[in-house]
Structure formats: C-alpha cells, structure tokens
What we know:
The structure is a single chain. By secondary structure, the chain is of the alpha+beta class. The protein is built from two helices and seven strands. Strands 1, 2, 3, 4, 5, 6 and 7 form a seven-stranded mixed beta sheet that branches.
Amino acid sequence: MIQVAFYDTAEDSVFDFAVIIAKKDGKWLLCRHKERTTWEFPGGHREKGERIEDAARRELFEETGAQDYTLQPIYAYSCMKQGGDASFGMLYYADVKELGALPAFEIRETRLFDEFPDRKDFWTYPDIQPFLLRKVRELDIK
C-alpha cells in the first residue's frame, strides 16, 4: 500500500515529479500510455535543472498536446511505499482551452471524461490518483 500525504507548500528542490489534473470544456482530460491499457493524469518527472512548474507545463504538452491553458498549483504531496523512501510531487490543476496534435512521445491517446468508473483497474496508479482527484474536487475549482 502507498501512503499519500499532502502539504501546503514545499521548496521547489524537493519535487521529483509533477502531476496535472486537467479539464477541458468541463470534462476531465486523461491520457493513456502506449504500453498500458489504463488511464492516468498527465505528469512526469522533472528534467535536470528544470523548475517543477516548467516540468508540469512540458508534461502537459507532451502528454495531451495542450496549447492554451491556465495552470495553478494545488498541493505538494509525498508518496511512500511501506518501508521505502518518500518521493515528492507537485499537484497542479489546468483549465485547457485548446488542444493541438498529440506529440509523438509515449502517449497513445487522450480522452475527455464526464466521470470515472469505480474500478481500480481503470487507473494506472490506483493507490495515488483517486487521492489526487479528491483533493482537486474538494477545492471545487470552476
């Protein structure tokens, strides 16, 4: 089991990755990796020397083709497997206005969802993604 903890803030240097929960036209925007059958929020690891917000913007484009959007930080969070070290991520919310062509990277497809099935096998990371989604829903972002 993975433990997820949320923080109001953290230094940029502690973050390993960024995750972006995005909506377009009031629907949730998810992506599917070429090597998986499950769905996930856009996101990924930061590159050397990259600020975490820049990593979020890069990942959002690479994994969805998002061209025009607003991006806001939501929470810092950590994930820790039992007996393991914690890794830190920054959770963002994006309101996507325009999608371009999906770049030829690791994502097979994107899709807009009104809601999600209540099945663990829907999510790529079922021990983490529902927690992140709940945090964004609690804020009732319009």
